[in-house]
Please model this.
Amino acid sequence: MPPLTTEAPALLRPTLPETSVVPTAEDDSIRPHRAVQPAGFADGTPAQAFLCAALFSTPADVAAVLRFVDDLDFEKPGQRLIVEAIRALSLAGEPTDAVCVGDWLARNGKLTQDAKYELTCAITAGANSDALRHYATAVVADSFREAYASLGEALLESAGVMPEHDLLPQLVEGGTRLRNHSRRLDALRGHDNN
Model:
């Protein structure tokens, strides 16, 4: 009779995908491809891809991109808390991996059920840390379009009920906010449109 064991047979043990190597555009050297394979939970949004990539990126890379990303670019409160944690850690030069983010959230009393769920989704989303800037661009672009539509709806509603002397200031304030948003988006895309 074979000895009893609690170890699963080799065929049933989960394995991580092997890291492949791909040449970079900067030079002919070869470096590991830094993709994380999806494992469930996530719904495939740019926000989740961004968070996943940020969890597997260097603090310097994350800090450089977060200069152009606002916490309010993320629709879900749990994602905003994770971005807040990632921002604080990256600015301090600390690792931005899932353990450090979870610890930061817990230490600061911000590890809500939403944050736990969104952190799990981010870990399992599947993303490429080399595409962090591209994911950030998609997040900011989605947020820009949402803000544009929201301003349009607010202006339309206000046109019928607000005093005339308040209409133009509302338009100017909203337009200024959108212009600043557009500048962040242009900066992420590498455009210098001031």
Remarks:
- The chain has seven helices and four strands.
